[in-house]
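The methods section describes the discrete structure representation at length, but only in general terms. The central task, working out the structure tokens from the amino acid sequence alone, is never made concrete. Nothing conveys this as quickly as seeing an actual entry. For illustration, here is how one protein appears when written out as sequence plus structure tokens:
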Amino acid sequence: MVVCPVCGKEYANSSSLLKHVKLKSRYDPMHMAFWMEFQKYMSTPREDWAMLTKTDLFREFLRERGGLL
């Protein structure tokens, strides 16, 4: 289980959470701020990211923020 750090809703995996945050960011300012933070994180690529998917990057982003165990 993965919990949305913005609203606390539980999701089965980080892919579902990524979709949730992306969709909610269209009309919820708090989700939008979180989405923009993720976009900023992605805009500074690292060497080891070459083979990672967007979901993998989102998972790494959550780990670094302390939102995923």
Q: What stands out?
A: The chain has a mean pLDDT of 90.
